[in-house]
Design brief:
This protein has 193 residues and is an alpha+beta fold. 33% of the residues lie in helices and 34% in strands. The protein folds into two domains: 3-62; 67-192, Acid Proteases (Cathepsin D, subunit A, domain 1), CATH 2.40.70. It contains five helices and eleven strands. Helix 1 runs antiparallel to helix 2.
Length: 193
């Protein structure tokens, strides 16, 4: 559902709501309290039904950077703060916020996120090196038991823990290559499997 396609319908419904509220407020003295209450409840229920019908559009507009999926073979992401595509992915059963980064080679976890999913940084061998925007950092290879992203689930997934400062964990190409198609159209990224 594209907001531009539905904008006229949304404007119409808002104007209808304003008219109904204005009409009922003008007839306030004429209506009995029970009829007014009934009309108010009907209006509230009607607005909830409309909001439910526009739930994907509202989620995309009110919560930028969130992921939505309407079928079992694709995920749609909206650009969030900083113009990045962000997604919360369940790693080992814990929701981890990621930047979906087509410039990153693999999955890179911050030290904090690694600890949240049960990895003890003191037991890691930081034997790798990675060049980042902040310079060269040490990395430690790990295996993630499970990754659940929308309707998709993967097991035994390779990743790295960043030994330096990393504000956001990165969901890079080693994971994104599991999708058959990646599209970026304006402020949306669509991942197809």
């Amino acid at each position: 559902m594209d907001i531009q396609e539905n904008l006229p319908r949304l404007i119409y419904l808002c104007l209808l709501l304003v008219f109904v509220v204005w009409a009922f407020s003008g007839m306030r003295q004429k209506l009995s309290k029970s009829v007014r209450d009934l009309a108010l409840w009907a209006l509230i229920i009607g607005m909830l039904v409309i909001a439910y019908g526009f739930r994907d559009t509202l989620k995309r507009e009110l919560m930028p950077g969130s992921a939505t999926w309407s079928d079992m073979d694709s995920i749609t992401l909206s650009r969030g703060p900083g113009r990045h595509f962000r997604a919360t992915v369940d790693v080992n059963g814990v929701g981890i916020p990621f930047i979906v980064d087509t410039g990153a080679t693999g999955i890179v976890l911050s030290l904090e996120d690694a600890e949240r999913i049960g990895i003890d940084p003191d037991t890691l061998a930081f034997s790798g090196r990675a060049s980042t925007a902040n310079g060269v950092v040490e990395t430690a290879p790990v295996r993630l038991e499970t990754i659940e992203f929308g309707p998709f689930s993967d097991t035994n997934v390779r990743a790295h823990v960043n030994g330096g400062r990393l504000d956001d964990s990165l969901l890079g190409m080693s994971y994104l290559n599991r999708f058959s198609k990646l599209e970026i159209a304006g402020d949306r990224m669509i991942l197809h499997r």
